[in-house]
Amino acid sequence: MFSALAAYFTDKIHLTQQELELIEMHCHPRKLKKKEFLLVEGEVCRFSAFVVSGCLRSYRLDEAGNEHTFKFVIKDWWIVDNESYSNGTPAQFNIQALEDSELMIVSKESFYFMLEQMPQLKMLVDRLQQNSYNASQQRIYKQISASPEARYQAFVDTYPDIFNRVPLHMVASYLGMSRETLTRIRSHFAKSK
Asked: Is residue 149 part of a domain?
């Protein structure tokens, strides 16, 4: 599994063989079965995870027990509960496998150690965090300004690999609409093609 993480890094930054060995020393493989949790609300997130294969989601439950999907992650993406990870506080999100998944896990301590040892890794992480922040800002803007149809189209255009891999009610939750609304919109788009 480490070869997928090594390929991810070497595609983005130059790493020596020693640096790759250091990363391999600090990252550990983990397999999750479909519906298995990587993190449960209330636990402290002390790791970040790179997805080698599979699909996971991050979500919260509201007071009424309704699920609100925050994000989906697939191959070559990272997942972490940022607030819990950064502050050492109990997680407010659950992270669950939607398919059998293979991950590479790195503890917070190991990750910070690697950042100190490899300045180019720190630059990559800064760039990835900036991209993630920008994507979050765009998502918030679309949620408050775009029509349900526009949000649906943007999701399909941006994440074509995810749409057909996750249950419809989870996509609806991510888009901030009911399953019925999403079904109606999908039907409308299918007829117009």
From this structure: no
